[in-house]
Write a structure and sequence with these properties.
Blueprint (H helix, E strand, L loop, with lengths): L1 E4 L5 E3 L5 E7 L5 E8 L2 E9 L3 E8 L6 H12 L4 E6 L4 E11 L14 E9 L26 E6 L7 E2 L13 E2 L5 E2 L3 E6 L2 E6 L8 E10 L10 E10 L3 E6 L2 E2 L3 E2 L6 E8 L9 E9 L14 E11 L19 E8 L16 E7 L1
Antiparallel strand pairs: 1-2, 1-7, 3-6, 4-5, 6-9, 7-8, 8-9, 10-24, 11-12, 13-16, 14-15, 15-23, 16-22, 17-21, 17-23, 18-19, 18-20, 18-22, 24-25
Organism: Leuconostoc holzapfelii
InterPro entries: Dit_N (IPR031899)
Protein name: Distal tail protein N-terminal domain-containing protein
């Protein structure tokens, strides 16, 4: 298996249906050796590892309709360097760091092997030999099971340290005209509603005939999961605040609808859903995530009145099953007003004859949120 990891920790499988690398070369290693000669004998004086170069042809997209979008997403992925190639074989998993040397760009029809999708050459310059990681533990003193983790330092991080997969979420967005969406996905609203971004959040207004679905999609049908940071068979929690004249809302992940949550038009209601996406047999490798308006019975396709409104703010999609509250995506470059500041210091020894001297059994961390 070939896989690339960029500087942001994003992964791309080079052997997937949407991005497939063929005819790879440069996986080996070569040397430049220097020798001292004495008659017919040669003694090694210096050995240098030559800089390796990986080359392959990559097919982008499994069908013509998404080949350009797949190429664009891959180019964006490559812009966050350096890269690490992961090569999994029968002899363990090996890593090699690299930088982009060249990515060719032609047009559909320029390759006689497949005229329906882009097939481009791709070159990496390796910057070190292959390596794999081993873990070792070193302890210079007798273990005390009561010894706490301690330290001293000043740190800052984004709120609760939970990564938000949604960009430009209301309240922390970098551009008031940008609608929130998952990285790699496309936001959308149903044809039966208008949408706008306000200082309070996203506002939808129903324009349908009363029997048509309306929603806000943070990743519309159908999004290629390989273009995002999400995975199938992995638990996620989506949370947000809602308010409006529509009776309720519910979450729809592909063809699965979750329980409706009631709301009102005077105060914000915080709701959350935990879900796990399963790959579809009809739209393989694709998904969508929508926040649907629902009537008083929880139905999404009837019982609406023209002019009804739905407002949404503080969208948060995070790993796991715990709703930790809203935090902006790091990529939004939010101001320091959305950060926590932590300062920790050494604790005092519990007893004058503390056997772990100079180590401490207690430590304290103060957290300040601006």
């Amino acid at each position: 298996m070939f896989e690339l990891i960029n500087a942001r920790g994003e992964h791309v499988n080079l052997r997937s249906d949407s991005i497939f690398a063929s005819s790879p070369t440069g996986l080996g290693i070569s040397f430049t050796n220097s020798y001292n000669r004495y008659d017919s004998y040669f003694s090694t004086s210096k050995v240098n590892v030559n800089q390796g170069q990986f080359q392959a042809n990559i097919w982008f997209g499994d069908v013509e309709s998404n080949t350009y979008n797949t190429f664009s997403n891959f180019a964006t992925f490559l812009s966050y360097q350096p890269l690490t190639m992961v090569y999994t074989t029968g002899a363990e998993t090996w890593y090699r760091d690299a930088r982009v040397a060249a990515v060719n760009k032609s047009e559909i029809g320029g390759n006689n092997q497949d005229i329906n999708i882009l097939n481009e050459s791709f070159t990496l310059d390796f910057v070190n030999p292959w390596y794999n990681n081993k873990t070792g533990t070193y302890r210079s003193y007798t273990l005390d099971t009561g010894l706490a983790t301690f330290g001293k330092g000043f740190f800052n991080d984004l709120m609760n340290n939970q990564y938000n997969y949604i960009r430009h979420t209301s309240g922390g967005q970098t551009d008031g005209n940008v609608f929130p969406s998952i990285y790699g996905g496309i936001y959308n609203t149903a044809a039966a509603a208008t949408s706008m971004v306000t200082p309070a959040g996203i506002k939808l207004t129903y324009t349908g005939d009363g029997n048509s679905e309306w929603y806000y999609a943070i990743s519309e049908a159908y999004t290629d999961i390989m273009a995002t940071q999400l995975k199938f068979n992995t638990p996620y929690t989506l949370s947000f605040d809602v308010m409006g004249t529509v009776p309720s809302v519910l979450l729809r992940v592909s063809d699965v609808k979750y329980d409706a949550k009631t709301l009102n038009n005077t105060t914000w209601t915080h709701v959350n859903y935990t879900f796990t996406m399963v790959d579809s047999t009809t739209n393989v490798g694709k998904f969508y995530i929508r926040i649907n308006a629902a009537n008083s019975d929880g139905a999404t396709d009837s019982g609406f009145t023209k002019g009804q409104e739905l407002q949404i703010r503080h969208l948060m999609l995070q790993d796991g099953s715990v709703d930790t509250g809203w935090a902006p995506a790091p990529e939004d470059n939010t101001s320091v007003a959305y950060r926590d500041y932590m300062y920790g210091y050494w604790g005092d020894h519990q007893e004058p004859d503390q056997p772990n001297d100079p180590y401490a059994d207690e430590a304290q961390t103060d957290v300040t949120h601006l």
